[in-house]
C-alpha cells in the first residue's frame, strides 16, 4: 500500500516539474509572433514612376501579425534585387506611424530617390522581390515574397481630367453623312515631367466595358496631337463605327472614351473614363413632283422614324399623281453636294423594291389622295398605301368601341397638313381610346396598321410603349388633333367641339371669360365647317375653341386661317355670315 502511494506522488511530481520546465523554455525563447500577409500591391506589379507627379503615393498594405502577450510588432518594407536575397535588402522603409501601422505610403519621389541612391539610372527598370517584415524585438516574421518591377523617373505626364462630352447614357445624335458638323472632345492639359518632351494626346474609344489597350479606333488630337482638344466630323466618326463592325446605323452604339497622353517614352491615361452613346440619326425625306415639295430637294419632307423598326421611316401626305412620282432622300440635297446625300427610287420593273443606283421614280401607286408612304432602308422596301393614309379614333370612349373596322368613316380625322390630322368625334367621359390609321390592328409589320396612344405626359403621343388615352372631360363633340409635324415629338390634343368669335368687332368684346354669353357661338355643320350669322362692328376678332382659354385660337388673313394667327379685321360694320372651315383651313365673311 505504501509503495502504490509513493508511485502516485512521484507521478504527480513529475507532471508538475514537467509543466514548469515547458513554461521556462518558452520564455527563454522570447515572445511569439503570428504569421501575416501582404494585400497590396499585387504580385508582379509593374510600377512606372512619373516625374510629373512626384507627390503621388505608392501604397503598400498588409494584415496585422498576431502579437505575443505584451509586445506589439513593428513593420518595415524590405526589397532586394530579384537575383539577391531579402536577408540583405536593397532598399527598406519603416511602416507608417513609426513602424506600427499596417500600411506604408511612399511618395513616388521617395521611392525614386531610394533607387537613385542605389545607382539605378534615370528611366531604368529594376526587378525586385519584396516582403513586409514584422518584429517584436526578438522574433522576425516575413510575409510571402512578392515580385515588383519599378521604372525610375525619366519622362512623365501630370494627372489630367476629361471635360467633355461629359459621361452620359443619353445618346448623342449625329448625322452620319455630314462633313460640316463636328463632335468636340475636350480635356485638361497635362504637363511633362521633362520640359523638353512636349505632351501629345491620343483619344481612344472602346465598346462599353472594353479594353483600352485594344481600342476599336483612335484619333490624334488637334494640332498634330499637341492640343487638349479634338474635333471629329460626324461622317468620319460614323465611318469609324462602321469599320469597327457597327454597320447598322439605326442602332445606338454604347462607347467609352479616354485620352492617353505621351511625353517621351512615358504614357498616361486620363484619371477617368467617360461613357458616350452615339445614335447615327439616319434622316429620310420624301421628294418628287407628286409631293407638296415637288422636286426641290431643299424643301423635301422629313419622314417620321419608326421607333419599333430602326431604319424604317413613314409619312402621312397628300399626293397628286401624274406629276413625275416621288423618291426618297437622306439629305435635303441631291447627290453630288457637300452633304454626301443619296436618293432611292424604284427598282425598274419591281414595284415595292427600292434601289439607290439606276433607280426610277415611284409613280405607279394609284390616284391622287392621302397616303401613308413608308421606306424600309434596311430591306430596301417601300409602301405607298391609301388604306393607311387616314387616322381615326377607336376605343370604349367612341361609338366604334375597340373595333377598328367600325372606325372609318364615322370616327375619321382629316389630313390638314403633312403629318397632321384634325377631326370631330363624340367622346364619352370616363372611357379610354386610341388613334389608328387602318381598319385592323397592326400585325407588327412595317406595312401594317399603326395605332397611337399617350406618351409619358399629357399631350405627348407614342406608337411604341404607349398607354390608352383616358377621356375625363364632358361627354360630347370633341376636336381631336394628331400632330406629327415635329417628327421627334408626336403630339395630340383634345379640345371642346365648339367655336366662338371674340374681339372688339363682336358684341362680347375681347372678354373670353366663361360667363360672357355675348360671344357669338358658331354651329357645327359637319365636315370641319362652322357657321354663324351675327352683327360685327368695325374692329377685329378671332376664333377661339373654349371660353376662358386663349391657348387654342385661329387668326388669319385673306381668307386663310392660322393657329394663333393675326386678328381678322372688319372695316365695314354690318350683319355677316361667318364660315370657318377647319379642314381646308379657310374662313369667309359674307355681308348680308
Describe this structure in words.
- The protein has 592 residues and is mainly beta.
- It folds into six domains: 1-30; 38-151, Immunoglobulin-like (Sandwich); 162-280, Immunoglobulin-like; 285-387, Immunoglobulin-like (Sandwich); 390-495, Immunoglobulin-like; 498-591, Immunoglobulin-like (Sandwich).
- The chain is 8% helix and 40% strand.
- The chain contains three helices and 45 strands.
- The strands form nine sheets. Strands 28, 29, 30, 31, 32, 33, 34, 35 and 36 form a nine-stranded antiparallel β-sheet that branches. Strands 2, 4, 5, 7, 8 and 9 form a six-stranded mixed β-sheet that branches. Strands 11, 13, 14, 16, 17 and 18 form a six-stranded mixed β-sheet that branches.
- β35 (476-483) and β36 form a beta hairpin.
- The protein is elongated, with a radius of gyration of 41 Å.
- The N and C termini lie far apart (152 Å).
- Mean pLDDT is 92; it is low at 1-29.
- This is SusF/SusE family outer membrane protein.
- Residues 36-132, 166-259 form the SusE outer membrane protein domain.
- InterPro entries: SusE (IPR025970).
- It holds the Pfam family SusE.
- It comes from Pedobacter albus.
Outline the fold blueprint.
Blueprint: H1 2-29, E1 38-40, E2 45-48, E3 57-62, E4 74-81, E5 91-94, E6 103-107, H2 108-117, E7 125-135, E8 140-142, E9 146-151, E10 162-164, E11 172-174, E12 182-187, E13 200-207, E14 217-220, E15 229-233, H3 234-243, E16 253-263, E17 266-269, E18 274-280, E19 285-287, E20 301-302, E21 304-305, E22 312-319, E23 327-329, E24 343-347, E25 350-355, E26 369-376, E27 381-385, E28 391-394, E29 412-417, E30 420-427, E31 431-436, E32 451-454, E33 461-462, E34 469-471, E35 476-483, E36 491-496, E37 500-502, E38 523-526, E39 529-536, E40 539-544, E41 553-557, E42 560-563, E43 568-570, E44 574-581, E45 586-591
Parallel strand pairs: 2-9, 11-18
Antiparallel strand pairs: 1-3, 3-6, 4-5, 4-7, 7-8, 7-9, 10-12, 12-15, 13-14, 13-16, 16-17, 16-18, 19-20, 19-23, 21-22, 22-26, 23-24, 24-25, 26-27, 28-29, 28-31, 29-30, 30-35, 31-32, 31-34, 32-33, 35-36, 37-40, 38-39, 39-44, 40-41, 40-43, 41-42, 44-45
Domain SusE outer membrane protein: 36-132, 166-259
Protein name: SusF/SusE family outer membrane protein
InterPro entries: SusE (IPR025970)
Amino acid at each position: 500500500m505504501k509503495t502504490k502511494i509513493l508511485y502516485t506522488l512521484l507521478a504527480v511530481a513529475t507532471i508538475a516539474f514537467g509543466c514548469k520546465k515547458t513554461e521556462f523554455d518558452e520564455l527563454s525563447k522570447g515572445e511569439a509572433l503570428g504569421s501575416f500577409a501582404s494585400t497590396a500591391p499585387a504580385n508582379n506589379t509593374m510600377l512606372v514612376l512619373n516625374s510629373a507627379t512626384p507627390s503621388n503615393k505608392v501604397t503598400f498594405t498588409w494584415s496585422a501579425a498576431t502579437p505575443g502577450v505584451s509586445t506589439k510588432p513593428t513593420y518595415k518594407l524590405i526589397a532586394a534585387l530579384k537575383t539577391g536575397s531579402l536577408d540583405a535588402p536593397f532598399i527598406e522603409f519603416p511602416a507608417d506611424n513609426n513602424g506600427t501601422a499596417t500600411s506604408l505610403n511612399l511618395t513616388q519621389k521617395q521611392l525614386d530617390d531610394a533607387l537613385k541612391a542605389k545607382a539605378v539610372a534615370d528611366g531604368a527598370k529594376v526587378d525586385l522581390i519584396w516582403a513586409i517584415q514584422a518584429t517584436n524585438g526578438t522574433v522576425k516574421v516575413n510575409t510571402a515574397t512578392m515580385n515588383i518591377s519599378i521604372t525610375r523617373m525619366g519622362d512623365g505626364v501630370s494627372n489630367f481630367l476629361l471635360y467633355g462630352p461629359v459621361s452620359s447614357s443619353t445618346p448623342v445624335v449625329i448625322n452620319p453623312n455630314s462633313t460640316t458638323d463636328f463632335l468636340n472632345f475636350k480635356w485638361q492639359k497635362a504637363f511633362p515631367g521633362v520640359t523638353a518632351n512636349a505632351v501629345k494626346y491620343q483619344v481612344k474609344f472602346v465598346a462599353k466595358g472594353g479594353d483600352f489597350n485594344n481600342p476599336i479606333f483612335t484619333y490624334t488630337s488637334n494640332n498634330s496631337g499637341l492640343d487638349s482638344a479634338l474635333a471629329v466630323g460626324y461622317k468620319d466618326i460614323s465611318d469609324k463605327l462602321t469599320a469597327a463592325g457597327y454597320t447598322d446605323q439605326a442602332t445606338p452604339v454604347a462607347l467609352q472614351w479616354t485620352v492617353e497622353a505621351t511625353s517621351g517614352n512615358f504614357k498616361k491615361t486620363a484619371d477617368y473614363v467617360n461613357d458616350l452613346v452615339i445614335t447615327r440619326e439616319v434622316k429620310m425625306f420624301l421628294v418628287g413632283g407628286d409631293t407638296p415639295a415637288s422636286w426641290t430637294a431643299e424643301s423635301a419632307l422629313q419622314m417620321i422614324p419608326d421607333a419599333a423598326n430602326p431604319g424604317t421611316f413613314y409619312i402621312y401626305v397628300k399626293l397628286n399623281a401624274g406629276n413625275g412620282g416621288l423618291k426618297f432622300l437622306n439629305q435635303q440635297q441631291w447627290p453630288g453636294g457637300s452633304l454626301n446625300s443619296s436618293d432611292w427610287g424604284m427598282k425598274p420593273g419591281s414595284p415595292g423594291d427600292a434601289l439607290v443606283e439606276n433607280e426610277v421614280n415611284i409613280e405607279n401607286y394609284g390616284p391622287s389622295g392621302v397616303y401613308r408612304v413608308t421606306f424600309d432602308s434596311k430591306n430596301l422596301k417601300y409602301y405607298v398605301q391609301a388604306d393607311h393614309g387616314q387616322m381615326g379614333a377607336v376605343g370604349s370612349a367612341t361609338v366604334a368601341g375597340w373595333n377598328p373596322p367600325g372606325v372609318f368613316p364615322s370616327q375619321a380625322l382629316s389630313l390638314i397638313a403633312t403629318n397632321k390630322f384634325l377631326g370631330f368625334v363624340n367622346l364619352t367621359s370616363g372611357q379610354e381610346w386610341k388613334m389608328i390609321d387602318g381598319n385592323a390592328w397592326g400585325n407588327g409589320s412595317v406595312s401594317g396598321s399603326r395605332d397611337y396612344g399617350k406618351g409619358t405626359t399629357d399631350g405627348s403621343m407614342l406608337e411604341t410603349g404607349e398607354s390608352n388615352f383616358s377621356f375625363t372631360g364632358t361627354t360630347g363633340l370633341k376636336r381631336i388633333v394628331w400632330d406629327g409635324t415635329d417628327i421627334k415629338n408626336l403630339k395630340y390634343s383634345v379640345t371642346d367641339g365648339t367655336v366662338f368669335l371674340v374681339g372688339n368687332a363682336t358684341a362680347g368684346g375681347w372678354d373670353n371669360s366663361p360667363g360672357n354669353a355675348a360671344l357669338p357661338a358658331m354651329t357645327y355643320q359637319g365636315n370641319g365647317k362652322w357657321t354663324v350669322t351675327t352683327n360685327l362692328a368695325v374692329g377685329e376678332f378671332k376664333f377661339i375653341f373654349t371660353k376662358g382659354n386663349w391657348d387654342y385660337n385661329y387668326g388669319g388673313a385673306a381668307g386663310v386661317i392660322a393657329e394663333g394667327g393675326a386678328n381678322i379685321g372688319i372695316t365695314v360694320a354690318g350683319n355677316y355670315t361667318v364660315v370657318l372651315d377647319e379642314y381646308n383651313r379657310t374662313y369667309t365673311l359674307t355681308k348680308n
